Amino acid sequence: xxxxxxxxxxxxxxxxxxxxxxxxxxxxxxxxxxxxxxxxxxxxxxxxxxxxxxxxxxxxxxxxxxxxxxxxxxxxxxxxxxxxxxxxxxxxxxxxxxxxxxxxxxxxxxxxxxxxxxxxxxxxxxxxxxxxxxxxxxxxxxxxxxxxxx
Length: 150
What we know:
single chain; 17% helix; alpha/beta; 1 helix; 11-stranded parallel sheet; 2 domains; 47% strand
């Protein structure tokens, strides 16, 4: 875009030669620092960017879970669950009461739930009373109970 003269004519205020490549590197570094700050600010404002919590396969938990993030259940969970997002994996089992924004069931769920978005996978086994706003059911899912659109 611009015609450049040789590096010999690029000098600082004292008449010393200046390497423009070094200047470009420092400008790029400043932009990277600015992007890093923006990322850090976003992480502090948006807690959903945190890593999900996991109940691993083979792990059994009984009790209440309250969490403002994502919970992945591949083991067994019995009790009350209040989370932002719940994913019941193909080996996961949840027995109890769920309140979440989104629920994805690929494994087994028995109990009652309230959510905005409900997705029931093809291998899921659901025996529950669920209130939802949006529903997706894949072919092959086993469902007993009551699904109510709110």
